[in-house]
Amino acid sequence: MPANTLNWNTTYNARLTFFKRTALNTNAYPHVAGIAGYYKQTHFPVVTPTALPAAGRIEFSASSFLFSEGAGIVPILITRSGTSGSVTVDFTTTDGTAHSGIDYTGLVGTVTFVDGQSTATGLVAIVDNSLLNSNKTLNVHLSNVTGGAVIGTRSDAVVTIKENENIALAPFNSARS
C-alpha cells in the first residue's frame, strides 16, 4: 500500500500472514527446489484516528518532571500540536506523596494559548520546608479544553520534588578506652 493513502476515521480490514518453513527439498527429486511448512493467517480491523482539529491537541510535554526542593516556582511545559485560534485548558495539582501547603502550593488555574502559540506553562510553587525527608511527588492534570482543541494522551503527569537537605554525620570513633 502506498504511503499516505489511508483516510482519517476509517476502518480497514487487514490480513497478517505468518509463514513457517520446516524443511527444504522435500519433493524427493534431487536438485529441484522444494519447501515444506505451514502458514497461519489472521484477519483484524485497523481503525485510523480522527483527524486533529486545526486548534490541535493539548498535552504535557512529558509524563514526569523533576525539580529540586529549592527551585521555587517551576514551569510545567504544556504543548499544542495545532496553532489555529485561541485555546484554554484547566491545569490542576493534587497530592501524591507531597502535601499541598507543606511541600508545594496547590493550585487550580487556566492556561491560555493565543493564536499561533504552540507551548505554554503551568506554574507550581515548590516549598523548601527545611525538613529532612525523601523525594516527594505531586500530580498535575489537564482538563476542560476550549477553542476546538482536544486533550492528548499525556493529560496527567507526575512532578517529583527532589529533597535538598543533607544528613550531616558525625565522625565515628571505634577506639576503646
How would you explain this protein's 3D organization?
This protein has 177 residues and is mainly beta. It has two domains: 11-47, no CATH class; 57-162, CalX-beta domain (Immunoglobulin-like), CATH 2.60.40.2030. The mean pLDDT is 84. The strands form three sheets. It has a five-stranded mixed beta sheet with strand order 7-9-5-3-11, with no helix packed on it. Strands 4-12-10-6-8 form a five-stranded mixed beta sheet, with no helix packed on it. It has a two-stranded antiparallel sheet with strand order 1-2. The chain is 0% helix and 49% strand. The chain has strands at residues 11-24, 35-47, 57-60, 64-68, 73-80, 87-95, 104-105, 108-113, 119-126, 136-143, 150-151, 156-162. The protein is elongated.
Primary descriptors:
single chain, 177 residues, mainly beta, Immunoglobulin-like, 2 domains, five-stranded mixed β-sheet, 12 strands, 0% helix, elongated
Topology of helices and strands:
Blueprint: E1 11-24, E2 35-47, E3 57-60, E4 64-68, E5 73-80, E6 87-95, E7 104-105, E8 108-113, E9 119-126, E10 136-143, E11 150-151, E12 156-162
Parallel strand pairs: 3-11, 4-12
Antiparallel strand pairs: 1-2, 3-5, 5-9, 6-8, 6-10, 7-9, 10-12
